[in-house]
Design a protein that fits this description.
alpha+beta
Length: 107
C-alpha cells in the first residue's frame, strides 16, 4: 500500500503538475528538491508580476502552512508561489532549498 519506513526510496517526493505555465528554470530545481530527504509534495501555484527586478532565480521561504511551507520563486519580474509539504524544520528546509539551487549551477 504505502512505502515502508525502511524502503530506500522513502526520500522520493512528488511534484504536482496542476498549472500549464511555470517560471523558466523552476521545474528542474523543484525536481531536484523532490529528491531530497524530508520533502513529500511540491506544488507550484499562482504566477504573478512584481514591481522589482530579480535577475537570477530566487526561492524564499514565505510562511509556514499546515504540513510545510509556502515558498516564493522569483526571476525577472515574475513571481510564483510554490507549496511544499515537508517534515523538515525551517532552518534545515532552507538548507535543502540551497542544495537544490546550487546543483543547477554545477551541471
Amino acid at each position: 500500500m504505502g512505502k515502508s519506513p525502511k524502503d530506500s526510496s522513502v526520500k522520493d517526493g512528488r511534484l504536482v503538475w496542476n498549472h500549464s505555465t511555470h517560471i523558466s528554470g523552476l521545474i528542474p530545481i523543484l525536481e531536484r528538491l523532490c529528491l531530497q530527504d524530508g520533502i513529500q509534495t511540491v506544488t507550484p501555484g499562482v504566477i504573478g508580476r512584481a514591481k522589482g527586478h530579480c535577475p537570477k532565480m530566487q526561492l524564499r521561504v514565505s510562511v509556514p502552512i499546515r504540513g510545510g511551507y509556502k515558498v516564493i520563486a522569483r526571476q525577472g519580474k515574475t513571481v510564483q508561489e510554490v507549496f511544499i509539504l515537508t517534515t523538515l524544520e525551517q532552518d534545515k528546509f532552507k538548507h535543502t532549498i540551497a542544495i537544490a539551487m546550487r546543483t543547477k549551477s554545477a551541471s
